[in-house]
Structure formats: structure tokens, C-alpha cells
Amino acid sequence: MLNWTPTADHAPLYYAKAQGWYEQAGINLSIEAGRGSAASAQRVGAGGAQVGIADLPTAMQARSKGADLKAVMVIYANSPQGFYWRKSAGIGSPRDFVGRKIGNPPGDAARLMWPAFAKKVGIDPSSVTFVNLSPQAKVAALKSKSVDIISDFYNEHDMKVRDFGDDLGFVAWRDVGVNVYGNSLVVNGAYLDAKPEVVHQFTATTQRAYEVCVKDFEPCLKALTDAASGLNPDNLRDQWGRIKQLMRDDTTTQVALGAFSPERVKADYDLVQSLIGLDKPLDPATLFTNEYLDTSVRMPAD
């Protein structure tokens, strides 16, 4: 289960499926569109899907509520989250968000993580109003002034620059000190216990696909657009350029593409626990594993 509808960051999955790699690994894979990280984490945690993509802090929150899942590969080593606004609305920085309307989907990771962002920039988390929007409606809502701010992934940054030009305001969460791990592959815990070799095959195959797409995106782009209609290839190419930046950190370049740093997971856990809260405390080391990754596969340093 994806975190959202298919887009550039999911292209490696479609490429590996089109190449028959999952089938060769003994996996009959179906790919379902998602409705946000919270929905994906809940679905995987309940066993409704064996594997999904979810923002890691959202998966932490789901685990604290009883969801049975574990992360096996990180896609975004850096947070993709950002806020966008029109400068002409009188917003110069996040401190001007007070009293404003933020448009985003109800299952969006940005909404769940909002208290952490708000406290980092020094405003009351309750000082804004959230407006429910579908992912496809965000830009239109900002243009029509029905909302003042939208949350979105950095992937789509180039499209917004074209739409808003010099009137575009933007802040990346990672630049204000909320650089938590983003989208990750999460696996149902009971399924992992019962079929560790299948999970190993799935993870290694997916890691290999991301490696191929980092080297040459065009075959992956074709696989994605063949499987999902209505996508703009030029926009997807722009997205992938941004995604590669988000995939790269010291761990993914020096340990393995998709590997988690235990220290960073612990820091993310501490941030979520202190600024947002968790229903039940967890051992951060139990939230993830790197054991199914091929350490010979590394993210390029540039």
C-alpha cells in the first residue's frame, strides 16, 4: 500500500514489477494507492496489507497505539515536508502562520507532526486551522485563496515555482530542525515473523530497483506512466531530481541505500515523544531493522 497515489518516488516499485523481479523472487505483488501515511501504517499494522509506505514518525505513532509493524528500508533519509504560501498574503515566515488556514489531507503526516513543527518555530500548535483537502486540490486551493498555506513534499517544488513565481513562500521542515526520517517501507510484524525470507526478498528487490532508478530514471518513468494514467513525465523528472536529494545522507551513502541510522531513529523518537507524545513508550531499536538490505548497494554521494 502506497502512502499516496502513484508518483515519482514510487517508480522503482513499478519498474521492478514490470521487469518481473518480484515474480522471480516468488512474490505476487499488487500495488494499491494510499490515503496518507497514517492510513498506510494502520493498514499494515492491522495486517490488511503485508507491506506499505509510511512516514517513520507516523509509523512510530501507529506502533504506540498498538499497530504491529516494523520499518525495513528508508526511502527519504531527509524529511520531504514543506509548507508553501503566497507572500502577497502577508506571510513572511512560519511565525506568521498564526490565525491562518493550512490545507492538507486529514491522513497526512504533516498534520500529525504539526505540533513538533509549531513548537520548533515558536508558535502555539492550536493557533492555526486545518482545512481538509485532497492532494490534487492543494495548489488550486492556494491559488483561489481558500487556504493561506499548504503542506507538500519537496518533490513538487519545481511545479509550484512555475505556478507562483516570485510570490511563492516556502520553508522546508528540515531547515527548522525537524529533519525526521520520511517515507519508509514498513512491514506487518506478524508477517515478518512468519515469512522473514519473503520480506528479505522483497526488501532487497526494492532496494535494487531504487539503485537502478537513481542511475537512470527513464526506464522507471516509463514503467510508472504505463501503470498509472494522467501523470506528467516532465513533472515526474523534476520530482525525481528532488527525491534523490532526499534519499541521500551519510548512512545511505556509507552503509547501504535505504539504511537507517540507529542514532537518528532514536533522535526522531525523542522528538516525537517530547513534542507530540506517544500513547505508549517504545524501544526505538525495535522500530526498524537494516538486516534485509544489501550493504553493497549504496546511494551515490552526489
UniProtKB/TrEMBL annotation:
GO terms for biological process, alphabetical: thiamine biosynthetic process
InterPro entries the record matches: NMT1/THI5 (IPR027939), SsuA/THI5 (IPR015168)
Residue ranges occupied by any SsuA/THI5-like domain in the UniProt entry: 8-216
Superkingdom, taxonomy of origin: Bacteria
Coiled coil (UniProt feature): none
Name of the molecule in the record: Nitrate ABC transporter substrate-binding protein
